[in-house]
Automatic annotation (TrEMBL):
UniProt name for this protein: glucan endo-1,3-beta-D-glucosidase
Transmembrane segments annotated in the record for this chain: 59-83
InterPro entries: Endo-beta-glucanase, GH81_C
UniProtKB keywords: Carbohydrate metabolism, Cell wall biogenesis/degradation, Glycosidase, Hydrolase, Membrane, Polysaccharide degradation, Transmembrane, Transmembrane helix
Catalysed reactions, as listed in the record: Hydrolysis of (1->3)-beta-D-glucosidic linkages in (1->3)-beta-D-glucans
Record lineage: Bacteria, Bacillati, Actinomycetota, Actinomycetes, Micrococcales
Length: 1072
């Protein structure tokens, strides 16, 4: 007998949550939900199958349509596997799911465009290049393994084994005999081999890795089980797994019976290897001497560099020839010896890590809003494969930008490694390290103090706005370039700057025209219909990416964004930034099309490791601290990036979009990217700490950074176009460009170096970019230069900027002074300027309600508070007066400015040594401590506490009357158990589960209110207490997205009018 259909009523918010957690088909086959506004009838669980005709088919069709309508209303973008090819709705917008043009890997030079599938080519079937079923990371240090090239060499055809991979301090490369390993510590001049840089000057430096056959050491496996010395000839190379900065790959023979597996990563001077099917085998290339070979530990000197090889546990190394050593099959390891270190001491001390490869490596980050800092934790996990040794720690080498801001107090070794980024200190026997980087805020635009109505420069600015008013996009440059993704982005970026400036000075006509053009362009690009192939985004599941068409004039792939996955962050950043501006003035548009903005962000910087459609932080190298532009990274020099400023444009755009839309996860990820990349750019592009090796490159600025070094070269222009060489790392100029001015002395030094290259001649064009940069150090000189070039008609604009914005920028900085890095705010869209020792405090209120922002110095002392009206840019001047610019009609949802936490962990609760001690996974910090739970009458900002401060989106609280003193009692925790499996006490991280909490109260008191589950300070979930069967029960559902920390689970009862708040230990734990 068929079961009856189950009908339930859900509110739309709950339905949206359900839809996010379950694929549509899962919803359909589970039960029927009646959602207010939607009716979705479906089959009940275990009901009998229907024939594919008649009323059942019509019912399923109706149900599927209703689910898709629900998803559109929720602005949820679902994995296309659940839907047929064609348009997919995301709110009022959408994208095409399916092929509408060329896609990644579709060049004859590549082996395949389907890296996760086997394929046939050259008459043979080749296994998938990537065996893990997940979106493929591109733009990484090891992406060459997912973009391998097709080789025809004599009579042999097949896929190559990838290019050189730089995981400093090592350089790696797969060879048929195994993994090539080299410590590239030899300084050389810049070269242009295999890169094809069109504007190569020969200036720069490299610590180049060797060719595929020239590595110092090859760690592999014997080619024959009965002949250990025989060289292996591997044919099948696959990527098996990866983490935030490591990769695991395996090379096997054609039969798959013999092979070698490798685990390697950034900052890990040990490579972990596993041989199977035959003996472990090491072969050296070049001058080799044996320093020691005892007790399974082999110490070699190869070409003047020292290496250690630990044989499989309990085995020894046998020397088969002058440069070949073999041992039994199993896990073994090879390490690089730091400069000047005693190799025997290192071998003894590091042996404990030889059989414990790093199997997890994750970054977690917290925006410490009150102190204006971003704390990041770089954590590893290991798996012991054999013998005795570490189960929790390893050896890590740190880049200079990491060591500069490291705050964990761990003492490094006295020895270091050489790298293209500078000296790398070494931490041994550590589970990770912590950095704390200052964040001085970003602005929608700097305040136009002197160009506002009544200001000395107002009339001149209005002339420039009048000139730009009817063409804010600079349409000709956009159409001349085929309306391609990049050039459309530049156009709407230009219009966004005009809109921001016009709003500040009250020119609503120019502002609204610019906003209209932005809205038209974004709406067009974010609208997908059947058959649309231009000005549209399409999703390709092969690599897991969103592609924009057209990508170049005449349908060309101008920058390799389609076939090579290049530059997505450069292009999409302009769209996100323009959308953030538009959203402050048009909340309805943002609600309708914001889902597509989120999709672009997910493509380039998804903050969710569990994202089924996109890889985690695609273009950002977590360990290197900056982005990479090349999608395939298939050069002998490794990956590269020239336009660091366009990468920063993405970060600042995410901060603004997250803030205006009330999305903490996006905002805080943007702050992580912004602070980290700013620190890396200062050192590796602008040489702020003199890391460049002067012996080969006696300059202080590099226009292009490679994994192996840095160049003064470009992918465009000519050798004499110095304005391009410098300007490419300065544009676009926005309120997010202030990081360039953190060190005015570096700005002046860089500008002087530019002038030295031109013989003190002013730039032929891009005056706007260079003068805006100069204004961060010397705004008066920049303004004078602007006036001269504008007056004699030589002033040349970059395509994404305008006279109006440039004039606004330099005149405003002339009034405000330089960025002041001795002060910080407790709000991300705020910063401090200083002129002649006098500070001005600036706040952009992105919300639709007034806020109060506090500025402090490094000691924590309050310097100023600024109350900013909704939607305006407010400046507190040195004399204490304030001026607010803009019409005040704009503003988005905003994110509340947190106050002092009111529900800390119970101080009587013993510390759990596995607890991270804080919110260590703020990639989704939307509810880190939940200080504003409306059910808690003691929480600040709650409805029953008139003395609270509602922060962003609210006005400062007013003092309330003191409540009458009430004597309360404490509820008792009866039990807290796994709701599905009560006897199971260990719950897996990254998995959803439910916990059933039972409470009791003394006397006749009733237990009402809310229960919350936490690990450390991270909130897993919360639920209302219900009275059931004489017991007080709360069943807390923990979502996968919230379950990201390991440690002991605690229960917090948030209190009621009769019972006090309390925190309880449980026997439940979240484990890996």
């Amino acid at each position: 007998m068929r079961e009856k259909w189950q009908l339930k009523w859900l509110d739309l918010e709950t339905a949206c949550t359900l839809a996010e957690e379950h694929p549509p088909i899962s919803i359909l086959t589970t039960m029927s939900y009646r959602i207010r506004g939607f009716t979705v009838p479906t089959m009940a669980p275990h009901s009998r199958p229907y024939h594919a005709h008649g009323s059942a088919t019509r019912l399923l069709t109706i149900a599927l349509g209703a689910v898709l309508a629900l998803l559109a209303s929720c602005s949820i973008a679902i994995a296309p596997a659940a839907l047929a090819a064609g348009p997919v709705s995301v709110g009022s917008g959408g994208y095409i799911n399916g092929k509408i043009g060329v896609e990644p890997g579709e060049l004859s030079e590549y082996c395949t465009s389907t890296p996760r599938q086997s394929f046939t080519r050259g008459g043979k079937t080749i296994p998938a290049l990537v065996s893990k079923n997940a979106p493929v990371p591109t733009n990484d240090w090891w992406s060459t393994l997912a973009f391998r090239h097709w080789v025809s060499d004599g009579g042999w055809q097949g896929c190559d084994l990838g290019s050189t991979m730089y995981a400093h301090p090592a350089a790696y490369g797969w060879h048929n005999r195994g993994l090539g390993i080299t410590y590239p510590n030899t300084l050389g001049a810049a070269t242009n081999n295999d890169t094809g840089i069109s504007n190569f000057t020969g200036e720069g430096y490299e610590y180049a890795g060797p060719t595929w056959s020239g590595h110092d050491v090859y760690a592999g496996v014997s080619g024959n089980a009965s002949n250990p010395s025989q060289e292996f000839v591997g044919e099948v190379l696959q990527v098996e797994d990866w983490t935030d900065w490591t990769v695991q790959s395996v090379l096997k023979n054609a039969a798959g019976t013999i092979g070698v597996r490798a685990v390697i990563g950034h900052g890990l001077p040990i490579a972990w290897m596993q041989s199977f099917g035959a003996a472990s085998r090491i072969q050296t290339q070049g001058t080799t001497s044996i320093q020691s070979n005892n007790n399974g530990t082999l110490i070699l000197s190869v070409n003047g560099r020292s290496y250690i090889a630990w044989a499989p546990d309990g085995a020894q190394w046998t020397q088969n020839s002058a440069n070949v050593f073999t041992s039994s099959a199993g896990w073994y390891a090879v390490a690089l010896v730091p400069n000047g270190a005693n190799a025997s001491t290192i071998a003894a001390n590091w042996r404990q890590f030889a059989y414990s490869p790093v199997t997890t490596a994750t970054v977690s980050y917290t925006y410490q809003q009150a102190s204006g800092k971003l704390q990041a934790r770089y954590e590893i996990g290991v798996t012991r494969k054999a013998g005795s040794g570490s189960t929790t720690s390893t050896v890590m080498a740190l880049y200079p930008h990491q060591e500069q801001y490291r705050t964990d107090g761990q003492a490094p070794l006295g020895s270091t490694y050489t790298s293209p980024r500078g000296s790398m200190p070494v931490l041994q026997n550590v589970p990770g390290f912590t950095t704390t980087t200052p964040f001085y805020g970003v602005l929608t635009e700097i305040p136009g103090i002197s160009v506002a109505p009544g200001g000395a420069n107002h009339a001149k600015l209005m002339q420039y706005l009048d000139a730009a008013e009817n063409d804010p996009l600079n349409v000709q440059q956009m159409t001349n370039n085929g309306n391609a993704t990049y050039w459309t982005g530049k156009a709407i970026g230009r219009a966004a700057r005009i809109a921001e400036v016009a709003d500040q000075v009250g020119d609503t006509t120019a502002r609204d025209k610019a906003l209209t053009k932005i809205r038209e362009q974004l709406t067009d690009w974010f609208t997908a219909t059947s058959g649309k192939t231009s000005k549209v985004f399409a999703y390709s599941e092969k690599y897991g990416t969103l592609l924009g068409y057209p990508a170049g004039p005449g349908g060309t792939d101008q920058y390799g964004t389609l076939t090579r996955m290049n530059d997505h962050h450069f292009h999409y950043a302009y769209y996100v930034a323009a959308a953030a501006t538009l959203a402050r003035y048009d909340a309805q548009w943002a609600a309708s099309y914001g889902g597509m903005v989120d999709m672009l962000i997910r493509d380039v910087a998804s903050p969710d490791r569990g994202d089924a459609m996109f890889p985690y932080l695609r273009t950002f190298d977590v360990y290197a601290g900056h982005s990479w532009a090349s999608g395939d990274g298939g050069f002998s020099k490794g990956n590269n990036q020239e336009s660091s400023a366009e990468a920063m444009n993405l970060a600042q755009a995410m901060v603004q979009w997250g803030e205006v839309r009330g999305n903490t996860q996006i905002r805080d990820t943007g702050i992580y990217l912004y602070t980290t990349e700013a620190a890396a750019i200062a050192r590796y592009w602008f040489n702020s700490r003199d890391d460049f090796p002067s012996a080969k490159f006696n300059r202080n600025y590099a226009s292009m950074v490679w994994a192996s070094g840095a160049h003064y070269s470009l992918w465009f222009g000519g050798p004499g176009d110095h304005q391009y060489f410098y300007g490419i790392n300065m544009l676009p100029v926005t309120g997010g460009s202030l990081y360039l001015g953190y060190e005015p002395a570096i700005v002046q030094r860089t500008y002087n170096e530019y002038m030295g290259r031109t013989g003190n001649a002013e730039p032929p064009w891009w005056h706007d970019i260079l003068y805006s940069y100069l204004a961060l150090a010397n705004p008066d000189l920049a303004l004078a230069k602007f006036a001269t070039a504008d007056g004699n008609g030589t002033f040349g604009e970059e395509q994404g900027d305008s006279h109006a914005h440039s004039y606004h920028w330099v005149t405003s900085l002339a009034a405000l002074g330089q960025v002041d890095t001795t002060a910080h705010a407790n709000y991300p869209l705020a910063t401090t300027f200083s002129k002649n020792g006098q500070r001005s405090y600036v706040v952009t209120n992105a919300s639709n309600k007034a806020i109060t922002v506090t500025f402090r110095d490094d000691s924590g002392s309050v310097l100023a508070t600024v109350t900013a009206p909704k939607g305006q840019v407010t400046t507190r001047r040195p004399d204490g007066s304030t001026v607010s610019l803009g019409d005040g009609g704009s503003g988005g949802a905003g994110i509340e400015i947190p106050g002092t936490p009111t529900d800390p962990t119970d101080p009587t609760d013993p510390t759990d040594p596995t607890d991270p001690g804080g919110p260590t996974d703020p990639t989704d910090p939307t509810d880190p401590t939940d200080p504003t739970d409306p059910t808690d009458p003691t929480d600040p900002g709650g409805p029953t506490n008139p003395g609270g401060n509602n922060g962003t989106g609210g006005t400062p609280g007013t003092p309330g009357s003191a409540p009458a003193k009430v004597i309360k009692r404490k509820a008792k925790l009866v039990s807290a158990k796994n709701a599905k499996k009560p006897k199971v006490k260990k719950l897996k991280v990254h998995k959803a589960f439910k916990v059933k909490v039972v409470l009791s109260a003394p006397g006749k008191a009733k237990v009402t209110g809310t229960v919350r589950l936490t690990v450390g300070k991270r909130v897993l979930g919360k639920a209302k207490v219900r009275h059931k069967g004489g017991r007080y029960v709360a069943t807390v559902s923990v979502k996968t997205a919230k379950n990201r920390n390991v440690g002991k689970i605690r229960v917090s009862y948030l209190g009621s009018t009769a019972l006090v708040k309390a925190t309880y230990n449980t026997k439940l734990r979240v484990v890996r």
